[in-house]
Amino acid sequence: MRTKGPFGLSVPQKFLVHAVLIVLSIPALLPALWMVSTSLRSQDQLTANTGVESGITLATLIPSQPHWENYPKALSTVPFGTYLQNTVSLCVVNVIGAVLSSAIVAYGFSKIEFKGRNVLFVLMIATMALPGQVTMVPVFAIFRWLGWYGTYLPLTVPAFFSAPFFVFLLSQFFKTLPDEISESARVDGAGDWTIFSRIVLPLSKSALATCALFQFLGTWNDFFGPLMYINEPSKYTLGYGLQQFLSSYGSRWGELMAASAVFTVPIIILFFFAQKTFIQGIATTGGKN
To answer: Is this model's pTM higher than 0.70 or not?
Structure first.
């Protein structure tokens, strides 16, 4: 009798499925492997063999003599610690602001009856269709008029006014929560804020974590925002700092790829630790009452 695995698959079938998935993931992993490989090469090795003319092979991906010194050189060439501190600070502030404000708005749309609710919800969702390039100039003009140019305020304040995608995601999740829970709390004298903070939020940890992860990734990878509003090197973020490294030391590809590899490590670690919560939050937002 064959041993059955998840989804009713036998062990050989499960092995075959994993093998196919690994093969299909190679094109997505190849740029990351090439980045790490380049970060471990000297300038002479990169000049002698780029791997493009001769084709990408296992020999070109694995350097014969890894140059680990590229990593400390890259981190000492630019103030990596300052860039990291600035980026983490922005991520923390934006995650708190976006998740909290979006949760409040989503609760209003999903659990509170008021006139014009559906119209306002559709209008809010419609703003997701506007490309950022359309509103870039007027938004920049407003922030400059407010005197916020050169500060972190344009990069943090908008997060406290909710994000349409997060509002949509959370409102769909809140609709799956039974109304009987809220009604029982109202009978006991609880108001909307008490129900929201003590009942809805604790039951929505997976959805809130999903929004927090999305916001963290967006802020961590943001390049265009700091490019527009930050003009002091001491306030640069990691994404903008890497671009400045490229502008100043564009020929030092080994060190540039080493800095890029370090830049991606926190994202990879965060996703591996939060992947179960992330998948659960995405899956449960599509349910219905």
So the answer is: yes
